[in-house]
Write a structure and sequence with these properties.
Strand order of the largest sheet: 2-3-1-9-8-10
Helix content: 25-40%
Number of strands: 17
Radius of gyration: 24 Å
Largest sheet: 6 strands, antiparallel
Number of helices: 27
Length: 649
């Protein structure tokens, strides 16, 4: 596990950039506090920061292979590396100088080429430089668990785990004075280099969808892709993961449930591979409880961690504690206060690189900080909802099916009626959503600002930009699937990799803690993708097949418990304890070219006065304005703590 940065020169003078690359590593020292290093030749500079998890004493990076022909920098973990090493040794006679997973990638690339990517079970973003063929090869994992940013300027092509490291190279103190760069030019514009299309999508979705970032000149390598690049040439990207939910007929449901349980048991077993102690996050839900229960089979002294708020209705701490007692693990709780949220938000936004307006990432930051006092690695339950049909919204195509039989003019008429109904009236949203097709009505689990709500607030609003620009190709690829399954597919490429996995990676790595997600294993996906909708969604519940599969693994009080999610009491706090703080953020902001200050203040006051709840809209604005104050205005300077260095466990 580490943070990486790489540079491919267009002018055969890569060594001139080496000092800047070395300096930029300081921006992500939290991702790898154990050690660091840089390697360079005429065409390439690669650097890393390492958090030692597997083969602590030998798998140093950059890692070479075949007497230096290949050089690797790698962020992530390969869970089937032992099997892969054995296979490469048996089939090709591959030799290894280390005991770690990094060398398995290098050997695999040498003998299998790009095909190695589809053989990897794990989370990864890596770069391999072939000094003989003079080609750079890189890839990002199946689901987008590990990040990889990229940008190009007149010097060449950059890649990094943290966007702030690219900003440091491009416009930081290490850049020669007066040197031309697209990023510097963009920064001098009225919008400060902000991608106004990405910002408009963020205001709708609460995150920036891939491959964009909030900086116009910086993009992300998409999940499930690999690429090759040669000096002076643009990279060529190839998608290796095209997920399909090919539902199968289930004549023996019990067999399906066994397959799910066995796949998950195998995934957790492999995710427990480490030379350090592995803990587990534990909420009150079925997903994290299942992971913790399975992990305990491999570590009887498993530590579990949870977080919550001391406000009724906004915490699953009691349920998590009951689950911990039922499965027999030690449990550690971190409560988060409103003051801690306010004090920490600038630092958290700095770690994020791009704004993500999910309030749950703040308590996640604190529980990760608590966990890092005890362990270096934790397991978590992300991905179960997207793979097994866990969100209540997936019921919608079933509940709205009667609208499908109405003539289009009638549906349009119902939509018109919904517009005339007062805001908040029962049935208004049902008529509105029933009047439009799934491609228009579903774009993910967060719906912040509608287009009509952005007018007058977002100064760069463009009516030609739509959330459908993000989802249209996803719907086009899934015309053969039922509505609920299409929504799962959309979430894999939007909500999961744009929100869930970003906050999971950024908030844990901010604390030099590695998070592993056993549900997001390609072998688990192969089983989950075949589960028919009737085994995912029933009138009573979601994730039906998964619940049946886990009946003998999780405690009964969790098995059929309704999903609470992770609610954060900002609805109440923005009316009182957070009101002055929020108002000051809006007033002090210098993002006038983008956000209308008076409209933002009016929204805050309307929320305080009631009766409508605008807390998520306000939070979305606050996170962006803080981000703007840090990365554009250079006005907000969070106090960045030194990375955690506990005793090796």
């Amino acid at each position: 596990m580490c943070g990486l940065i790489g540079f491919l020169s267009s002018q055969r003078d890569a060594t001139s950039v080496e000092p800047a690359i070395s300096g930029s590593l300081a921006q992500m020292r939290h991702r790898g506090p154990d050690e660091g290093g840089v390697w360079a030749d005429d065409d390439v500079v690669i650097g890393f920061r390492r958090l030692s998890i597997i083969d602590i004493d030998h798998s140093h990076q950059p890692l070479q292979y075949l007497d230096g022909r290949y050089q690797l920098i790698f962020n992530g973990e390969i869970y089937n590396y032992l099997e892969l090493r054995d296979r490469l040794a048996d089939e090709f006679g591959a030799k290894f100088a280390t005991d770690g997973d990094s060398e398995a990638i290098l050997a695999g690339y040498h003998y299998l080429g790009a095909k190695i990517v589809s053989q990897l079970r794990g989370m990864f973003a890596f770069l391999i430089w072939d000094t003989q063929e003079r080609v750079l090869f890189g890839a990002r994992d199946w689901f987008g668990i590990k990040p990889l940013y990229t940008c190009a300027d007149e010097r060449g092509l950059f890649f990094a785990s943290e966007k702030k490291s690219l900003l440091a190279v491009a416009v930081g103190a290490d850049r020669p004075a007066g040197a031309p760069t697209d990023l510097a030019t963009e920064a001098a514009t009225p919008t400060g280099g902000v991608d106004t299309t990405a910002l408009q999508q963020y205001l709708t979705l609460q995150y920036v969808p891939e491959p964009a970032s909030m900086h116009r000149q910086i993009r992300r390598v998409e999940s499930g892709t690999y690429f090759t690049a040669r000096p002076g040439q643009p990279p060529e990207y190839h998608r290796y993961f095209n997920p399909d939910f090919a539902a199968r007929k289930v004549s023996e449901p019990e067999r399906l449930y066994r397959e799910i349980a066995e796949a998950l048991e195998d995934s957790v077993a492999k995710h427990m591979r480490a030379d350090v102690t592995v803990g587990s996050f534990l909420s009150g839900g079925i997903d994290s409880t299942a992971i913790a229960a399975l992990a305990k089979r491999h570590n009887p002294k498993l530590l579990t961690f949870t977080t919550g708020f001391q406000r009724e209705g906004y915490s699953e701490v009691d349920v998590a504690a009951e689950s911990a007692a039922a499965i027999g693990v030690e449990h550690i709780v971190k409560y988060v206060t409103a003051q801690e949220m306010m004090d920490s938000l600038p630092l958290i936004v700095w770690y994020l690189d791009d704004p993500v307006a999910d309030p749950a990432l703040v308590p996640l930051y604190f529980v990760a900080r608590e966990a890092r006092k005890h362990v270096k690695v934790v397991l978590s339950g992300e991905g179960a909802d997207e793979l097994f049909g866990g969100y209540k919204i997936y019921h919608e195509p079933i509940s709205l099916r009667p609208f499908d039989f109405l003539p289009k003019p009638v549906r349009r008429g119902l939509g018109a009626v919904s517009k005339r109904l007062p805001e908040g009236m029962r049935g208004k949203d049902l008529l509105r959503r029933g009047a439009i097709g799934i491609e228009e009505r579903y774009y993910g689990n967060a719906r912040i600002f509608r287009p009509d709500e952005m007018r007058g607030l977002y100064r760069a609003f463009d009516p030609a930009v739509s959330y459908m620009d993000v989802t249209r190709p996803l719907y086009q690829a899934t015309t053969h699937l039922d509505g609920s399954t299409r929504m799962q597919y959309v979430d894999l490429f939007t909500w999961l990799r744009g929100d869930i996995l970003v906050k999971a990676d950024k908030m844990t790595m901010a604390n030099s803690l590695e998070l592993r997600v056993p549900f997001l294993d390609i072998e688990v996906f192969k089983v989950a993708s075949g589960v028919p909708t009737s085994q995912k969604l029933t009138k009573e519940t979601t994730k039906y097949a998964l619940r049946r599969a886990l009946a003998d693994i999780v405690p009964p009080h969790v098995l059929n418990r309704a999903k609470l999610g992770f609610p954060v009491p900002i609805r109440h706090w923005l009316k009182d304890v957070m009101y002055d703080w929020a108002r000051a953020i809006i007033i002090d902001s210098q993002a006038d070219a983008l956000i209308d200050r008076d409209a933002a203040l009016a929204l805050l006051d309307a929320h305080r006065a009631g009766p409508h709840d605008y807390s998520r809209k306000i939070w979305t604005l606050l996170v962006f304005l803080i981000w703007h104050g840090i990365f554009v205005e250079d006005r907000i300077h969070p106090d960045i703590p030194e990375p955690a260095y506990p005793v090796r466990l």
